[in-house]
């Protein structure tokens, strides 16, 4: 059912947004420029993370002023239209939970978000919410280990209930409790293979799939001695290399669009985090806007 909705919504994207995206990419509309349009779309996708930060309180972000793609900073109303009737499934650790919070802050009124935050952040728990007026369903699955994610992907394949938007990410718990980059990479390869199996051979019907990169870790701010000992800069680099080597992202031939939380957290800087791992909401707001812009471009 989710795949039918996604296909239908793609047609709506084409009919309602084609004109605005052509202007957004500064391209003529004649058919013989289609190849140029496709190339420019890929170029803009590669530039989505070019963000500038204002180190104020709270921190603020904007796309680089030299950027020519003119990405959209989404309002709640426009985001609701893009995601209308969608099922959004996020699974992972606290970073995925913070992305879900940023998405709900965009889609809901502040007073509504304040009432649901305690349930969303109940320790080590799943969370789900439906926004009836928008037809949007959001599920968060607590999946701190990669084995939790592989099980989730198996369940999706068995039930054939496909989310319209799939957001996955893990690695922090593996780094802390297992501390073995090579083993992490082995499981990433399995996740990649299983995610690819969810895409129909035609490629015409598939979820928008996103992988959350690991945040920049500020070792001196980590709140336990075990974290400071195991979650070092060298270990973080080794885990990030596994993501690249295993080809998780589309740029590497994989099924996922990378939401580079590492790049965003480095841009926001050490003042954006109290515990060296979880960052100000502006980081995850930027990630959600990158996600929505990539969906717009990818739907063409």
Automatic annotation (TrEMBL):
Subcellular location: Membrane
GO biological process, one term: xylan biosynthetic process
Domain of life: Eukaryota
GO cellular component, one term: Golgi apparatus
Molecular function GO labels: acetyltransferase activity
Keyword entries, A-Z: Membrane, Signal, Transmembrane, Transmembrane helix
Main location group: membrane
Annotated signal peptide: 1-31
UniProt-recorded name of the protein: Pmr5/Cas1p GDSL/SGNH-like acyl-esterase family protein
